[in-house]
What does this fold into?
Amino acid sequence: MNQRFLFPDLEKGTKEKPVNVASVPQRSPFRYPGGKTWLVPRFRQWMKSFQSVPQLMIEPFAGGGILSLTAAFENLAEKILMVELDEQVAAVWKTILSKDIRWLIQRILSFELNVDSVREILSQKPMTTRETAFRTLLKNRTAHGGILAEGAGIIKHGENGKGLHSRWYPETIARRIAAIETVSEKIEFVQTDAIEVLEEYQLTEDVVFFIDPPYTAGGKHAGSRLYNHCRIDHAGLYSLCAKLNGDFLMTYDNAEEVRTLAEQHGFKTKAIPMKNTHHTKLNELLVGKKLDWAE
Ligand SMILES: C[S@@+](CC[C@H](N)C(=O)[O-])C[C@H]1O[C@@H](n2cnc3c(N)ncnc32)[C@H](O)[C@@H]1O
It folds into this structure.
């Protein structure tokens, strides 16, 4: 069958305007590559489409976790389970959800940022989880594009010639972390493989999954540059999603391989406009069992 006919939405292009992310509460301490702040309005719509508030929302590829945080702050789910494999990112969530949160906040507020102090921290191998958490946030906000993967260089010029300081806002980062403490009872974090968690919860009824894997399908390799963990068996992930009892919402880049996989599994797709960090308008793809709430 003609591919065009299958995806009229894509064929026409969407008339929707990209979300202005400035209108969305920024709750994550990260500036995460591939972060989903732009999806917050759609995510709210999806989470409110259920008859009752879901008992559990699972974000198996949590990264900067903006949608998990949104669910927690806005009571969109009773409990939230965040899952991430990357050790650096995991250290941040573990520390924020532990008694070391106060240490982390103080460390951020008291750090004197300059090229030497940043280089010194980034060259060290931290001994503790909380030191790893601090190093991760520092790296995330002083490396080009927030990239934590090996090889990312630190910002030299940054926004308005502000150099290293252009993304390091200690009070803002500290305030966001302190705010998360107010909802920490609702959130659990585990450092493990997303696939294991999806398998574990595959038969659970009152659970929903927001699934945002690294984009490496369809010959696109952005994910391999951005993340330390990026090897995903996309076909296997789709097969697993087809077995989930709970509803799921998946996001992908708008690649033909992705649309074909969705069609093979009987999933719906919808192209959503967003602007990337270079303000280029792109379409990303929502994938789900039903996307009637998104019409
Ligand atoms: C597209 S990013 C998620 C971004 C996130 N939704 C946000 O808004 O910040 C994908 C994430 O999946 C993580 N990841 C990759 N493979 C994984 C795996 N097998 N299990 C768990 N996490 C994984 C990466 O480290 C990365 O943080």
